[in-house]
Amino acid sequence: MINSTHTKDNKSKDPPSKLTRTDRRYWKRKKAWLRRKAAWARKLDQAAKLSTNSNTNSKRNKHRPTRSPRSSPKSTQSTDKNNKHKQHQPATLKPSSLSLSQDLVGNHNATFLMNNIKQYAATKRVRFVQHSRSASRLPTDAEGSFKDIRYVDSNRVIQTFRDMTVTQCTMEIVSLLTLKNQPYIGNILQILHDDTKNHLIGLSMQRYEQTLKQYTHQNRLTPHQKLNLIRQMLLSVQCIHRHGIAHRDISEVNFMVDRGTLLADGSVASLVYLIDFGKATFTRPEDVKRWWIQPNGHDNSTTQYEDEVIPADATALDSWCAQLPWISIKPDHGYRCYRSIQTLPRNRTDHGVLPWLVDPMAEDMYSITVLIWKVFTESAPWRGVIDTDLPALRDMVNSDEAIEFNVKRDVPGVLSRELLLMCLKFAPEDRATATTLLDWIDTPHISAGLLEEWGSYHGVTSSRNKRRKMPSSK
């Protein structure tokens, strides 16, 4: 006879009275998981209620006349140049929560945007291709936050957009078109669209061997390989900044790597390509105005991109362009270990527009420098703190003193520390540009010194990393 107290349905959710240390950890994690599960259930219920209410309201308001939204006055900008990153964002800016089919003001704007992209693509010799249903039947080889990746053959990969706003789709495609045939940038081949619905479906790109994350994890890199890799990463950032684009999502999964020729030490060089411009932004007024898409005020929570901020009307657009390259954004919840204190969220629910402006190019430099740290030390920056531990992460980057303390503690080598501290700064205006950093690295005695440091202290950093991962004997 089976004891009912041990069946799956009647298993107790409360811990027993006597627990070992391992048991206490287990029950602590289980309770946290149950709380998260309950929170997600509440969110799903709320979403279902909102969806029902929106459908009901749309039927009621079907024949009611619509009113044009009122425009808010321009905000007064601070004249203190040293405090640019503390300026308040204009009140007319609001987050976009619009679907691909609803993100335009009427069908006229959708047609105008599509024609504009087609004309621009023609100048770059990139063809628009009707999306084939047979392509969508291919198995999904990889999934991103907003894309499905399918490998067509050894030379081509298809990326289909999933739950992306039309602003994101436009930014992704236009950025790749602008950077077409530029070195160290992913090569766009075709644009996939649906003529019947006037939709952008996705794009076709050149296929590369592996991501930077896979490359660094699967290979023991020599100092020459590390320096070659880091130079190309900086050259890719320099390229996009010169073309008036900030990436805003730099990480080890957004760089692709192919194998190249031999280096001076006989090791195989890498060829690096920057991809994924869905979160990118323009830093020049003429580009912002050309590709700006005015929201129509509808909401569709199923395709909401809560981290997106765009000008709500023409007045807000003028204010946005006047303050460039500084922009209004929300806290960045993606790859938090690569984000500065300006964009690092305070907690998991921090999604409000930041009360200061952010320089996206300076944020790129901060992010690429943290990635450089990870490449040449072969260990996780910030002592391997997980990006969900926001209080600990914020404590490490909340001032120049805290950053310098952590760098000097974890990174051996005078030149290696100097390399990192040129860009890991609290204030955006204090961070070096990609050009400045490249000029410094290419100085003969600097590059020779870096190669020597990276060759001599590899065992030190590896042993430190292993000791951190070893469980306590107590």
UniProtKB/TrEMBL annotation:
Compositionally biased region (Low complexity): 68-79
Residue ranges, annotated region (Disordered): 1-96
UniProt superkingdom: Eukaryota
BP GO terms, sorted: mitotic DNA damage checkpoint signaling
Biased composition, class Basic and acidic residues, residue ranges: 1-25
Protein name: Protein kinase domain-containing protein
GO CC field: cytoplasm; nucleus
Pfam families in UniProt: Pkinase
Domain Protein kinase: 135-446
GO molecular function: ATP binding; protein serine/threonine kinase activity
Compositional bias annotation for Basic residues: 26-40
Gene that encodes the chain: ABSGL_11105.1 scaffold 12129
InterPro entries noted in UniProt: Kinase-like_dom_sf (IPR011009), Prot_kinase_dom (IPR000719)
Gene3D superfamilies membership: Transferase(Phosphotransferase) domain 1 (1.10.510.10)
Coiled coil regions in record: none
SUPFAM superfamilies reported for this sequence: Protein kinase-like (PK-like)
